[in-house]
Specification:
three-stranded antiparallel sheet, alpha+beta, 68 residues, single chain, 22% strand, 2 helices
Amino acid sequence: MRLLTVATLLAATFAGSSAFAQGSYHHHAFCLLTGSSRECAFDTFAQCEASKHGNTDTCVRNSPPENH
């Protein structure tokens, strides 16, 4: 009986966490290119520009998601 209860609780926990992960995706419109790294976390061009650290950093439009 305890095994059934534990299995049910684990199944509910994992089912809830995967549903949350699927619904939390947010596509950001701009990416900051710094050397070889790419950080796509900006909704506006101004936010990206404000995050630049030097003259070699560049802001570019993020490509649309393929499967979202």
